[in-house]
Amino acid sequence: MRVQVVDHPLVAHKVTVLRDKNTSSPVFRQLTDELVTLLAYEATREVRTVPIQVETPVAITTGTAFAKPTPLVVPILRAGLGMLEGMTRLVPTAEVGFLGMARNEETLDIITYAERLPDDLTGRQVFVIDPMLATGGTLVESIKYILDRGADSVTCICLIAAPEGVARLQEFHGDDDRVHLVVAALDEGLNELSYIVPGLGDAGDRLYGLAE
Ligand SMILES: O=P(O)(O)OC[C@H]1O[C@H](OP(=O)(O)OP(=O)(O)O)[C@H](O)[C@@H]1O
Ligand SMILES: O=c1cc[nH]c(=O)[nH]1
Ligand SMILES: [Mg+2]
């Protein structure tokens, strides 16, 4: 598994505003959208391409197109939805599958309440988007799900990760070079409620309001 923390002043600045508890939902959504495009730039470096011919007003030249099968983007509902538009804007030919997962805030067990993915992911490059990697329970489960269906690779794009979550991914997928993780910030750790510290609070709530 390869882990990349994107070290860039634009990313650091946007994450700082995102963390601010006084940042409103509309601004939070806008920054999430902007951040995913910056992270996706790194995360899609190994997306498969094929050469194509293109005719400019001046000459015919060789360009680049995404290879088939096209990349599959999988937002983890709810909070991952906030990253979807930024991702599909960059990779417009991508297909989109959905995983609805929520962690029980007391037991931290993961409940999968929705799943809409192709049964066969053979040969697919999959991009999982979810802003928060806390204990890692959600991502470990998602990655397992996707690899079990035959995907070639799973690249997870997260805004904020806790070292505990990264360690959990290492434990389950550390030796697997099909798995990549790209994050904007690696934080200090988890608090007693398994929230990321300093983090930004509950990403789903800040994007979409209270879950109750
Ligand atoms: O690493 P973990 O400990 O599993 O926690 C991370 C998960 O928690 C958040 O989702 P949440 O369960 O709050 O659902 P929501 O997006 O509907 O708010 C977040 O978006 C991740 O999916
Ligand atoms: O800090 C955290 C941990 C899990 N999920 C969130 O949205 N925030
Ligand atoms: Mg939540």
TrEMBL record:
Residue ranges of every copy of the Phosphoribosyltransferase domain listed in the record: 5-209
Any one Gene Ontology molecular-function term assigned to this protein's record: GTP binding
Cofactor binding, per record: Binds 1 Mg(2+) ion per subunit. The magnesium is bound as Mg-PRPP.
Enzyme Commission number(s) from the entry: 2.4.2.9
Record text on activity regulation: Allosterically activated by GTP.
GO biological process, one term: uracil salvage
InterPro entries: PRTase-like (IPR029057), PRTase_dom (IPR000836), Upp_B (IPR034332), UPRT (IPR005765), UPRTase/APRTase (IPR050054)
Binding site for uracil: 196, 201-203
Protein residues bound to 5-phospho-alpha-D-ribose 1-diphosphate: 78, 103, 130-138, 202
A Pfam family the protein falls into: UPRTase
Catalysed reactions listed for this entry: UMP + diphosphate = 5-phospho-alpha-D-ribose 1-diphosphate + uracil
GO cellular component, one term: cytoplasm
Keywords: Allosteric enzyme, Glycosyltransferase, GTP-binding, Magnesium, Nucleotide-binding, Transferase
Co-factor(s): Mg(2+)
UniProt pathway: Pyrimidine metabolism; UMP biosynthesis via salvage pathway; UMP from uracil: step 1/1
Family from the record: Belongs to the UPRTase family.
Name assigned to this protein: Uracil phosphoribosyltransferase
Organism: Galactobacter caseinivorans
